[in-house]
């Protein structure tokens, strides 16, 4: 191995988590993660070895989903719909704030 290849410093920090890290960060059973992948609600990247890499954003989304499902006794599908709608509301509120700043409205 040529050590000079690494002279530029440590590798850049990734915003992706491997399968085991993702399971630990979300504290969710692997079958639930598999269900969410099958539904297309989360779309991890695939490694050349066939593993999964998940964006950090999905940790927050899954934690929110699990909290809603537990607190309101929702099914997975219902929870996914609610989280998606909450994300849309956040996006729309952000756009409204942006346009208010542009037009100098209170």
TrEMBL record:
Pfam families: MerR_2. Gene3D superfamilies: 1.10.1660.10. This is MerR family transcriptional regulator. It comes from Megalodesulfovibrio gigas (strain ATCC 19364 / DSM 1382 / NCIMB 9332 / VKM B-1759).
